[in-house]
Amino acid sequence: MPNIVVVGTQWGDEGKGKVVDLLTARSDLVVRFQGGNNAGHTLVVDGKQFIFHIIPSGILYEDKKCLIGNGLVVDPGVLLDEIAKLKAAGISVGPERLSLSDKAHIIMPYHKAIDLAREAAKGKAKLGTTGRGIGPCYEDKVARIGVRAVDLTDPEVLEEKVRINLKEKNFFLEKFLGAEPLDAQPMLDSYLAMGEKLGPFITDVSVELDEALKNQKNILFEGAQGTHLDIDHGTFPYVTSSNPVAGSACAGAGIGPKQLHHVVGIVKAYTTRVGAGPFVTELEDETGDYIQERGKEFGATTGRRRRCGWLDLVVVGDSVRLNGLDSLAITKLDILTGLKSLKICVGYEIDGKKVRQRPTSLKRMAAAIPVYEEMPGWQDDISGAKEIGQLPEAARAYINAIETITGVPVSIVSVGPGRNETIIVKYPS
Ligand code: GDP
Ligand code: IMO
Ligand code: MG
From the CA of 226, how far away is ligand 2's center (Å)? Predict the structure, then answer.
């Protein structure tokens, strides 16, 4: 079995959680390698819905190990809450089932305060972040002043870091952002208490993965967000602060590139975006509303209404290149049922010229006019389909068009939120 990486090819919420849950059946370990609790990954198993923000989406399989890599920014309160919720659902999660990298960075209360105050100060120009402190925490990592998981178990180090950082953070919060300053002591008390609870889970994830690899175990790498939210390759500055691309699985988990064997790109059958930023195929009409309502397109983290539009293969095509995709998993195909005709964006027209890559300049992107290929829709319910042959001809043609235009084979087609509402075309190998 290969080690598989799952990444989003659009702006997040493509259905990565569902596909990771599915692929976990044939894996031994599942590891997240970037992002934080800005992610919301939904699984529906036996009619029961679970939403995970930090814990890898493989956790429902009791014989699998889940790991939170060094590339994440972790809010310890949110992690403990997820562990507690799983326990309440009858799934006990101890250190034998879950590891937290000692090198992962910790989201502190001042990160959240800065995220929120900065967004408020920007007014209409805000990025539409999730407000979870993700950006400010990654900033501290790069500035080399961040608190890491290992520090939660060392009161002296934690206190020194928090007291030094708070001087700067409080100055910034009060004097620049006009927000309330924060007290060190209650913060230290609560983080040390959480550190005590998390202590048994904190380990060197890279070493654990290395041992697993030596024992011929299979690793599944779970990306968060999407390629076009990537800090380097996305629609900057309307992006997140990490690298959701497949290459970051190595740095964010602590393994070498030769250990990645197959990259699956998750493609929602249409496009959504939550938060601000350019969106060439956005539909601000009845069709957009139809997709939004049928697809229940509300953010799994913030509950915000997701913007909806036609499938943009310029965006997906860039993701093929940026991730080296081996196969595609098409999700939410069932949501398009009932539309008379469908449009796929195959290029952008900018200043009278056709382009096939998303331009870096936001001005050029704003000027882009989508070039569409129109295809017939289908009316039959497809959510019970178990094989490609059971799909209506128009749905098969839609999948074929995606394969032909991107040049990447489809391995999975998802026709409903449930684990079983899936067509495996060819298991990623
Ligand atoms: P993620 O962040 O990429 O894991 O995706 P989210 O969980 O944020 O959003 C995907 C939503 O679509 C979730 O509510 C899933 O339960 C749901 N979903 C996933 N695949 C399908 C599908 O094929 N059909 C339908 N109807 N819903 C799906
Ligand atoms: P999953 O893993 C969709 C978006 C936010 C905002 C931008 C920056 O569920 O696909 P941040 O809080 O990261 O600084 O916000 O990124 N964003 C997501 N959009 N799905 C996600 O995760 C996202 N995580 C962040 O809405 O536009
Ligand atoms: Mg999501």
Answer: 8
Which one from 13, 230, 312, 334 is the annotated catalytic residue?
A: 13
Q: Is residue 429 in a domain?
A: no
Residues 76 and 150 in one domain: no
Q: Across the 429 residues of the chain, what is the mean pLDDT of every consecutive 10-residue run?
A: 94 98 97 98 95 97 97 98 96 96 98 97 94 98 98 97 98 97 98 98 98 97 98 98 98 97 98 95 97 93 91 98 98 98 98 97 96 98 97 98 98 97 96
In-domain check, residue 174 = yes
The SS3 of residue 134 is helix
**DSSP code string of 303-367:** -PBPEEE-EEHHHHHHHHHHHT-SEEEEE-GGGGTT-SEEEEEEEEEETTEEESS--SSHHHHHT
Ligand 2 centroid–CA 12 distance in Å is 7
Report the separation in Å between the CA atom of 237 and the middle of ligand 2, taken as the mean of its atom positions: 12
Ligand 1: which atom is nearest the Cα of residue 20?
Answer: 4
- Whether 381 is a known active-site residue: answer no
Tokens representing 157 are 């180090």
Which residue minimizes the CA distance to atom 16 of ligand 1?
417
Q: What's the domain range around 272?
A: 267-424
Residue 41 bears catalytic tag: yes
Give the residue carrying structure tokens 């997240």.
32
173-187 tens-digit pLDDT: 999 999 999 999 999
Given the residues 41, 53, 228, 262, the one annotated as active site: 41
